[in-house]
Design goal:
By secondary structure, the protein is an alpha/beta fold. About 25% of the residues lie in helices and about 25% in strands. The protein has 3 domains: about 5-45, no CATH class; about 50-290, Aldolase class I (TIM Barrel); about 290-330, no CATH class. Bound molecules: iron/sulfur cluster. Iron/sulfur cluster (SF4) binds near residues 17, 22, 30 and 32.
């Protein structure tokens, strides 16, 4: 499959799918390991190569305000355009091309599998969907009645992102930290690229939720969390759901301790103080850190315990107590 978003220049292919802009010679791969230079074209080398498939609760993505309590057919490939030292999915994301066991499934086949499971939505998740761009676009073109979701790091160039927004109904974007240094040293990317992507997704009216994985000593300072919350409030929207999730030691960060629950509670508190209406705690059991409260009357609208979800007081998209319209799609 020929890749999209590239051009030839000075004997190499220049990939424009993401801001890294890799220069790829014939026989070489881009940084993500998923685009390969061949004699006549740049190839989307992992097109259709599926590493994982499962039916998941939508809350696992995490998406708390998008068809709450529903199930979503979830599909992942291999490769990623970041290289996070803390990657919690490194067996698929860091897999050099061809080494991870995959099966080929055409876009038509994954759509058919989704239908067989009697589901009406597909999430591109587990590894980075950006590097599966062509595959996602083909699946979406094949069946427009399915809702498509991307769980992404937001490192994608503006044009392909806008194309993706045209076929995607919801996205969860990871904001992995709130300093350039963190992105450079830990992830191999740039903060500004991710923020711009989130702003574009919001402008395009794709349902957006944000995840911030809190890593002790790396991205959990008061200033950094406050900076993130102010950006959400001022540049995205105060009613955008924000998930502060718990880090556990993984990959190249085995020496960093798990995030204390108290730190997650402080992040949630800081978000609420800065005006964020829906701040959640993820990957940790707390009394009510995953519950949704109406920002207008304070009533409990959705209770979540792990992936058990109780729609306590939802009237369509409104709070059943005070009828305030919530940023919840259903
Ligand atoms: S998508 Fe891959 S090959 Fe293209 S610029 Fe990004 S990292 Fe490089």
């Amino acid at each position: 499959m020929e890749a999209s978003h590239y051009h030839a220049e000075d004997g190499v292919y220049v990939c424009g799918l993401c801001p890294h802009g890799c220069r790829i010679p014939v026989g070489g791969f881009g940084r993500c390991g998923t685009r390969r230079g061949e004699e006549r074209m740049l190839v989307a080398y992992t097109y259709g190569r599926v590493s994982s498939m499962a039916t998941d609760p939508i809350e696992k993505k995490p998406l708390y305000h998008y068809y709450p309590k529903s199930k979503i057919f979830s599909v992942g490939g291999i490769g990623c355009n970041l290289s996070c030292k803390n990657c919690q999915n490194y067996s698929v994301s860091m897999s050099p091309s061809g080494k991870k066991r995959t099966t080929y499934e055409s876009p038509e086949e994954i759509v058919a599998m989704c239908r067989t499971e009697r589901l009406d939505s597909i999430a591109f998740t587990y590894n980075e969907p950006t590097v599966w761009f062509e595959y996602i676009m083909d699946a979406a073109a094949y069946d427009r009645d399915i809702r498509y979701v991307a769980v992404t790091n937001g490192v994608i160039s503006e044009e392909p992102l806008k194309e993706l927004c045209r076929v995607t109904d919801a996205m969860n974007i990871d904001v992995k930290g709130f300093t350039d240094k963190f992105y450079r040293d830990v992830c191999g990317g740039r903060l500004a690229d991710v923020l711009r992507s989130a702003e574009i997704v919001h402008e395009r009216k794709v349902h957006l939720e944000l995840t911030y994985l809190v890593i002790p000593g790396y991205n959990d300072s008061e200033e950094e969390i406050a900076g993130f919350c102010h950006w959400v409030r001022d540049c995205i929207s105060a009613d955008t759901p924000v998930h502060f999730t718990r880090f556990h030691p993984d990959y190249e960060m085995m020496d960093v301790p798990m995030t204390p629950v108290d730190t997650l509670l402080l992040c949630k508190e800081a978000a609420e103080e800065s005006g964020i209406e829906f701040a959640y705690i993820g990957n940790a059991l707390t009394d009510d850190g995953s519950d949704t409260y109406c920002p207008e009357c304070g009533g409990l609208v959705i209770r979540r315990t792990g992936y058990a979800v109780d729609l306590v007081a939802l009237d369509g998209r409104r709070c059943a107590y005070c009828k305030h319209r919530l940023n919840i799609i259903r």
